[in-house]
Amino acid sequence: MTSGKMDSASVIESLRGEFLSDCLDHLERANEAIEGMAAAGGDGKTYLKQIQHNVHTIKGTGGSFGFPSISRIAHALEDFMEAHPDILADWLGIEGHLDEIRRIAASGIDVAGEDLARIMDALPKAHRRKAALSAPSAPPVRSRLAAVRPVREVNVLLVMAKGVQRKIVGQELTSCGFGISFVDSGVAAIAVALARKPDMIASSMVLDDMTGADLARAIAGIETIKDIRFVLMISTRAGKLKAVGLPDGVAVVAKDHSYVEELTELLMEWGFFGEAGKKIAARKVS
After folding, report:
1. Domain ends where: 99, 127, 155?
2. How large is the greatest C-alpha to C-alpha distance in the chain, in angstroms?
3. Cα 23 from Cα 99, distance rounded (Å)
4. Distance between CA atoms of 143 and 163, rounded to whole angstroms?
């Protein structure tokens, strides 16, 4: 019996070692791609795809081999790359994430609790980067949020299928000064909400595993996250009439030409931009 336990422990330790070795290999290939991106001078999409592949692989395996912190940082890097309007010019931000993953992998010791929280807070954030706010290639901010900034760190969980629309919404919110995390399913959204307690969840109505309305009801039914602000984004303005049976406080926004303006009003009314934002919103109402 003891021998069996020792054998199991040996197998687990061997798998952990293989993961760490593979992780360091992926980091090395990602660093080589960063060098190519830097040399390409803003024309490094091929190198970016290589980095995204390496990071996604690391994210998917870290938690399975006893390194959830590595998966968490890799997920943050995926968010950073998707939310950043000018990521090809900000390879240093990518490198900052990879360096933290490398430190943990090289040490062979997972990080948790306050130590992980400090690392996560210190990671480069798309909405804090100068390039994200002033790069010529960044999309224009199509709302009055440009006149004010969040009064504190505000984090938004965006629940949408991967694609152009999700990237546009994420980059516009990033340009307004919000921290953005991305998931594409209701189950993942609940897990991230429980772990990170975002200030707001913005979800599409159509998800792979449930509807956005189901997600809103699920969030409202969990005591520790029920007070998170929730925005349900639907396809057409006419569809707002069908968005019934939602928990109190859930806002509904149609994804048409004016959705950014509607979202702006909600964010200001909810106080994310302090008194200045509330006054701007009040002026429109009056």
Report:
1. 127
2. 77
3. 12
4. 22
Tell me which residues of the chain have a pLDDT lower than 70.
1-6, 42, 130-152, 236-244, 257, 275-286
**Whole domain around residue 255: which residue ranges?**
144-285
Give the pLDDT confidence score for residue 266 in this predicted structure: 84
CA distance 188 to 192: 6
CA 25 to chain centre: 25
Q: How many CB atoms lie within 10 A of CB 229?
A: 19
The count of domains in the chain is 2
d(CA 215, CA 204): 10
Inter-axis angle of helices 259-269 and 274-285, to 10 degrees? Answer: 120
46-82 burial string, b = 16+ CB within 10 Å, else e? ebbebbbebbebbbebbeebbbbbbbbbbbbbbbbbb
Per-residue pLDDT tens digits for 191-201: 999 999 999 99
DSSP label of 129? -
Check residue 137 and give its pLDDT.
45
Closest C-alpha among 194, 195, 239, 214 to residue 203: 214
**3-class SS at 158?**
strand
Q: Is 212 exposed, middle or buried (0-12, 13-18, 19+ CB in 10 A)?
A: buried
Can you give the pLDDT at residue 52? 96
Beta-carbon contacts of residue 130 (< 8 Å; ≥ 6 apart): none
CATH number of the domain within which 173 lies: 3.40.50.2300
pLDDT on residue 193: 96
Residues 93-151 have pLDDT tens digits of 999 999 999 999 999 999 999 999 999 999 999 988 744 444 444 444 444 455 555 65
Q: How far apart are CA 107 and CA 119, in angstroms?
A: 15
Query: What's the gap between Cα 58 and its chain centre?
Result: 16
